[in-house]
Amino acid sequence: MTPKTTPSLLSPLVLLVVVLLFSSSITTTTTAQYPPVINSLLPSDSVSLISFKSKADLNNKLLYALNERFDYCQWQGIKCAQGRVVRVVLQSFGLRGTFPPDTLTRLDQLRVLSLTNNSLAGPVPDLSPLFNLKSLFLNHNTFTGTFPLSILSLHRLTALDLSYNNLTGLIPVNLTGLERLYSLKLEWNRFNGTLPPLNQSFLVVFNVSGNNLTGAIPVTPTLSRFDTSAFGSNPNLCGEIINKACDSRSPFFDSPNATSPTNAPLGQSEQSQGIVVLNPPSPRNNHKKSTLVLGFCIGFAVLVSSLFCIFFLIRRNGGERISKEPPTTSFDTPDIITYPEPEGSRNNLPHVEENKFQVETKANKILQVEETPLPSQRLIKKSGSLVFCAGESELYNLEQLMRASAELLGRGSVGTTYKAVLDNHLIVTVKRLDASKTAITSSEVFEQHLDAVGLLRHSNLVPIRSYFQAKGERLVIYDYQPNGSLFSLVHGSRSTRAKPLHWTSCLKIAEDVALGLTYIHQASKLIHGNLKSSNVLLGADFEACLTDYCISILADSSSNIEDPDSAACKAPETRKSSRRRTAKSDVYSFGVLLLELLTGKHPSQHPFLAPQDMLEWVRAVREDDGKEETQLGMLTEVASVCSLTSPEQRPAMWQVLKMIQEIKESAMAADTASFGYS
To answer: Compositional bias of type Polar residues: which residue ranges (predicted)?
Structure first.
């Protein structure tokens, strides 16, 4: 019987030894390491957490305890995946102490580390072992020392916040190598020196205000997106971006014999410091330069005279032949917007280049016809007939369309939409534009615009197949989408309360919408202008497709009486009818749409919150259990930067698309890696 009782007694004895040793170590906080017996019995991640607590939590705020059923994955601020710590979020825990080395840095599966708003002091330890880290928040502490160079090796990092500390020294130039950064906050430290030429394409949140930076701000496409507040309280910063001229005087061009007598000592001082100062040119050099300039002027005059004579002779001899040739029409083609974009972004938009050519060619034809005589005859020819776009086959005629049975689908700010079933069993969607709202648009402009918009073809756009106008009646005909609108999917019927979509569905829909918007912006000088969930339809494979795009520009916005949700989707700068909508207005509407996806809340119910508070609201609305917090945080961050009040601070749509695809790749990588956890 004795051999059978020994194992049952062993476990309580071992646990008692562990608890006693842990209790004794807590009373003496002079070491962060535990005796080998504990290290051998506890999981390595829990040892790292307890070691961190022993130095960083001198006030014993963290209730980490070893008991009979201890589970470090359930400790405050800790999230695990497959038994490994992936998130440490100890924000505003009142921690006091230091960030000891070889503690949290041993959590090699860590994705998110936040020690925000505590009282941690001392230098930041070597973080290079955290090669999986994506988000690092050490802001609002009292860390000292220079910029932690180990951060530069964290190539998966997307968010970095070191603001409100006492860090000094230079901002390293190699920070430009962190290509995935979309948020970089270094404000209110004591950094000095010049600002590196940051040009990460994803960077949409940026602040270096409140430091001691000097010199000209590098003019890069990325830094140019931010307003002066991102660089404020750096008295010695200058440059085009903050509208502050840099001192143009350079010691290389100062003369020691300047007119002011005070300049002589200055020149001597510069020479004594090793700065080369050029002497003024001698009279002999001046004479040579004058001779050279005079010779150049004479030669240029002879050349111009010769060219004029040749041109006159050619014109006289060939005038009769030229006059017999038909006159060529000169016209301006629509401008094509070309955004700076990262390498490979075109791979996601395979039809952009082809469509640019088609749009330009079609616009040329339209303008050429307008220059020919008798424009009224052309108007009579097309007005009153059904015009098919982009060379579409004429599958139906106007008479069939008028005979079709119609079912009301909805009323919008520009017109009313119907489902029409033709006698040949073809189903189309007909948008009947409100004549009173589109009266400001002439027949010629309407025709030109629909000809151009009708060329747009993308898998995430509902194509315009044809249009019609006559005597104030204007119709736009689209393909019919069988699975309803995104509005119905998100909000359900009036009798049911729909739950927010799973984050994977939100991500898929967001990517589809971003692809469609990016295509519109890059294919031509067009914008959607009326993006909202009711204008996103679900195709046969439940792909999200944009409709009603590029139509609102034809209407008089001052006469619109919009519902609160439609008004909330509009960018602040466009809510006055005098302000013109831009591509950045579409980006704002996309941000509102993304929040609507994540929360299931109507746009008019979205609170006005700072970006850092938005995630808490999203989590509360979704009743999130923490399992999808990483993905929610990333998507909420995208929504927040898209819906910033200042249009200059919003990213371009292709950048938003890249951020969403980056989140998608990150989620896929995390799922793949989770199978390798032990």
So the answer is: 256-274
